[in-house]
Design goal:
The chain is α/β, with parallel strands linked by helices. It has 15 helices and 19 strands.
Amino acid sequence: MKRCFSGKTVVLGVTGSIAAYKACEVASRLVECGAAVIPALTESACKLIGPATLEAITGRRAILGLWERGTASDMEHIAMARQADLFLVAPATANIIAKAANGIADDWISTTLLATRAPVLFAPAMNTNMYLHPATRDNIARLRRRGALFVGPGKGRLACGTEGEGRLVETDTILEAAAMALNPHKDLFGRTILITSGANHEPLDPVRYIGNRSTGRMGRAFAMAALSRGARVWVVRGPSTEPLPAAAQVTDVQTAREMYDAVMELVPRADVFIAAAAVADYRPETTHISKIKRGTDAFTLPLVPNPDIAAAVGGSRRPGQVLVGFAAETENVPANGAAKLRAKNLDLLIANRVGGARSAIGSDDCEAWLVHREREPDAYGVIPKTVLADRVLSEIARMLSAPRPGA
């Protein structure tokens, strides 16, 4: 995610919600990711959080109003509107949403929102009844029609004691939405991408299972990159340690057969299928109802094959779909990958080297080749999975836009 913010200027508008203190964490994380953060506070926000805190976190003067410190004379709101790569309002009250929706410009934040041409992202935080009020709903709908983006709010117990929608979403979720807003390439807008991610756990008894070391990092990288390019993203996720973006539609499964069923239900409606999960090739022939007791004799475990999800999708593909597979190999990596691509009727295949110090499983980087149907593989060397996902999606976008006879 750091690549998305490096060298970018983010104006962080903080308004008078009780959640204003959380803006400090948002600012800190943005700075850690390499963004230049310009904090701006409304008068109400200053009663809840000291501007000196945000100044210390960002290393920049906090903007408090149109008339303070000579800002009106140099038309700072216009200058900042031009400099900003993103205008993030977090937390965003019902008041600032109403002002923005109706073109009211009576303080620095609302004035600059009118002047900026940067993407605008609101993170609402307010009382549940205020959020659900028809006026607020209409204002949000109006802003969405104009291209403004929203993240949240979340549900839960609010500071006012009520339960429901209105909580400021978690910082990670805000940063994900900000990263997506910053990506100028929306070459997958309107496309639906189905991704498998994570491992499978094949139960042996109520305690034990057969699994692998997949963390789901590759699936997360693809989900994040695809959302940033404007795609609708569905993820069928096996057991994983990596959280997925909040904007992804997630179906959680455990076993390979459950993953197969979920994929075969969703894939007819997908434009792209990316098989990034480390699917279990085999499962125990028998799942024992009771825990298997330890004995002194050798224990034999019969295994039977699981369905090959990528091959099943390749065998029932509809015209125009782009299908992407993975191959984890210890030797002859690109050659073995090319054989799998042909056997499974795929368009692209990422061949990874596994085993040893450069193993793709469980790491942020991988040694990868992108295998094509009709030309030599692209050798990427050791590459971050986030960069790999972007490169593969660029190739997918090109394929979707080009005529593909016989696909």
